[in-house]
Specification:
The chain has about 110 residues and is mainly β. Helix content is about 10%, strand content about 45%. Strand 5 and strand 6 (about 80-85) form a beta hairpin. This is Phage minor tail.
Length: about 110
Amino acid sequence: MAIETFSWPTHRGEAPDITYRVRESRFGGGYRQVAGDGPNNKEDSYPITVTGTKAQVRKIMEFFDRHGGAKAFLWSTPLGDLGLFTCADPKPTPVGGGRFKVSATFKRAFHP
C-alpha cells in the first residue's frame, strides 16, 4: 500500500518544537565531548490546525483513524520540506455555523 499524503491546507501560526538528541561526556578542566545520538537525531513536531465543514473534518478524522497514531504519512513542513510524520492527538472541535476545527501535532517519523 502506498504512503498517503496529508494534503489539507493547515494554519501554521504556532512555532514547531525542534530538538537534537545528543550524547555528552564531561571531563576534567571543563572539557566535554558531544556527539549526535544516532543517524536521525533531529526530533521535530509541528502543531497544526485545519478548519472546515463537518464533512471535510470527517474526512480528515478518517485519515487520522486509518493511520491510528502509528502509521506514518507524508506532509510538507512550513519550510516546504516533505517528510514522514505521525499524529496521535487529533482534536475535532465545533466552532459554530456548521464549521469545525481540528487541532493536532505532527511528529517526525523515519523508515526503519
